[in-house]
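Example 3.
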Amino acid sequence: DSGVTQTPKHLITATGQRVTLRCSPRSGDLSVYWYQQSLDQGLQFLIQYYNGEERAKGNILERFSAQQFPDLHSELNLSSLELGDSALYFCASSGRLGGGSGGANEQFFGPGTRLTVL
Amino acid sequence: AQKITQTQPGMFVQEKEAVTLDCTYDTSDQSYGLFWYKQPSSGEMIFLIYQGSYDEQNATEGRYSLNFQKARKSANLVISASQLGDSAMYFCAMREVMDSSYKLIFGSGTRLLVRP
């Protein structure tokens, strides 16, 4: 158990709908990262928050947005869903912001939310 | 741009034997970090081992070791004494620094099957 929790575990919805995925980081971790794992694109970084502020953006669609709340939990909002958005969405957390040469500062992943868009 | 390449889509290994999973990387950075994660069929991503570019010794964590060859830009994962529970997808990843933060760039993964 990584200490990162994600809800729900599974989500089935229809095209055009909107969903919210929730993540609670490990106790004490300030950084939250969102990744998408799909069959055709593999594992891709979407967005990162640190202590409530957006710090980095990756291949995140404009239909997707995220936020991190004062209690450090994060939500990923996916709207106008398309069939191609079906994927496993991971949240990860780490203790420090940077990752220079000062140690691993590894990211600990949650169990993921499997989204199926029908 | 940084890139991670895992050329083995699938591997078989006999239980109790050692296996090496290949990973090559491409970066122009002098300081970087390499990670291996395991993804069992249940789906979660489990951190296994880390190697920093300035680490002089190869990283080891229990039955996992990382064969780091900087000049060849390779960071192969060695699993000794394979167990049935090692059957999973294995991903090599590189840390890409973005301003004061970082993200992970993942390879396409290697599916390992341990035979009894």
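The interface with chain A takes residues 31, 33, 35, 37, 42-47, 50, 52-54, 91, 95, 97-106, 108-109 of chain B (CB under 8 Å). The CA atoms of residues 8 and 78 of chain B lie 14 Å apart.
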